[in-house]
Amino acid sequence: MFKLLFFITIIAIVYFMFFSKRKPFPPKKQEKAMEEAMIPCDTCGIYVQAKETLMSSGKHYCCSQCLEKRS
Length: 71
What we know:
Order of helices and strands: HHEEEEH
Shape: rod-shaped
Number of strands: 4
Low-confidence stretches: none
Distance between the termini: 80 Å
Strand content: 15-25%
């Protein structure tokens, strides 16, 4: 009896390791939109991807120099 259970367990493990394919979760729509959004720098006006901006006091800046220039 023990040998049969052991054999069934081994087959189940092999099946789930090699034949069960999980689909990765697609990125959320909001994250994807934020990734692609282009936002102007509040100091120089150059457009930068939203994920690459520096944010301070609700304003977006393209680099640390523009962030320091703010008045």
